[in-house]
Write a structure and sequence with these properties.
Layout (H helix, E strand, L loop, with lengths): L3 E7 L3 E8 L4 E8 H4 L5 H15 L10 E5 L2 E3 L4 E5 L4 E5 H6 L6 E5 H12 L8 E6 L3 E7 L2 E2 L29 H5 L1 H14 L18 H4 L4 H25 L3 E5 L6 H15 L10 E4 L6 H7 L3
Parallel strand pairs: 1-4, 4-8, 9-12, 12-13
Antiparallel strand pairs: 1-2, 2-3, 5-6, 6-7, 9-10, 10-11
This protein binds zinc ion (ZN).
Amino acid sequence: MNKFYICFDVGGTDIKAGIINQNGEVVCKDKTPTKEALKNSSLGKALVTFAQNLCNNNGFKFSKAAGMGVGLPGLVDMNNGILKYAGNLKISDYNIVQDMKNYTSHNIKIANDADLCALAELKNGEGKNYNSFVMIAIGTGIGAGIVINKNLIPNSFSGEVGHMKIASKHSNKCHCGEYDCYETLASTRALVNQTKQAMIENPKSKMWKNYTPETVTGKTIFEFKDDPVAKKVLKSFIQNLGDGIINVVNILTPEAIILSGAISNQKENLIAPLEEYVNNHIFARLGGYKIKIVPASGTSDAGIIGARYLF
Ligand SMILES: [Zn+2]
């Protein structure tokens, strides 16, 4: 049997697990709701059990895996195997590697989930085309992975662009305890909240035809792009998203910004106007520099694929 790795992407909603081969290909995968997995078990124990089941169900010998890689949301101390802070999981200062070692003798490595997505892009995706890029993942929050000269910046705590300050209104409280963090204004969750608010303030908006403030999703404004209310929400969202990217570009001037997350497939409605906005406001435009903004090629499997490249 060829070499294989068991890799995880632990999210607030689901835990994904996959068997990944030497070439970074997903051989088989499964997912389970995070809440359920953690009901009667620590995260470490849940992952080992999940790995054993995944192997058994797909004809792999658990003991033969070449390693286990785990992507975690939040601040990850890679060297000591400790999940220092994960707001979405309500876990802090947890030695996950030591816990997993209670149930298996495998070589185990952990890393931040957005860093692993950037690693997957670098090895197998859109990132192959660039020497330097920043991958920005837009989801419930905003994460990032920074690649310079084909290397992922490996510092456990770096690249937390989601907590850059992009306003000084002191009005948007972040789960980290601060105000006006980038992700309170430009994440998918922020977009949903902004759309809700706009509907409540504009009872004549066309969005009411298909949605109520309770059923709004991150796609709603894109479905109603000829509605002036939706248009206004989108314009302001693009500016907020753009302002964070401008800060990143002003510091690093990478060759590209790679965007991941469900909204990144909105090419005409989001990526194109975003790229224009950013290029009109970055400092280096005065030197003739232009940044490319491109969607990630990675599927939702990028997290588990990236974890394979920890080895
Ligand atoms: Zn924050």
